[in-house]
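Our consortium's second objective concerns turning raw sequence data into structural hypotheses that experimental partners can test. To show how far this objective has progressed, the report includes one record in full. It was chosen at random from the queue rather than selected for favorable results. The single chain below, 118 residues long, was entered without modification.
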Amino acid sequence: MLLVDDHALVLRDVPPLLERHGGFKVLVASGIRDALAELNRSAVDVVVADWKLGKPGGPDGGHLIEAVQRWHPGCQNVLFSVDPLGAEVARSIGAAWYDKDDDLSVLIDVIRRVANRA
């Protein structure tokens, strides 16, 4: 799976937890450009992206997920944020949703659910 977030603490702290408690192999990217490059280098079955990724008014995690759906159609997608409007965006683009305020076990369940679609 590929975790995409522009917060260094998330990229540092969350992958070891997902690996330990979820059994996932986790790659990380700090932005859209890094994520697209990683997708071209590595076989990824799930992308988990922060909706509020990037600068306001610019491309965000929703745009990244749309690009992944177009160029890597077998890859499953999860969008996350603390902003509840992100859930509407996730539904509109056909991505699963995770609220960052939820427990990490919820994210693990969401990833497992979408990974089983692949």
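The partners drew two points from this record. Strands lie at 2-4, 27-29, 46-50, 76-81, 96-99. The CA atoms of residues 66 and 93 lie 7 Å apart. Both points have been shared with the crystallography group to help prioritize constructs.
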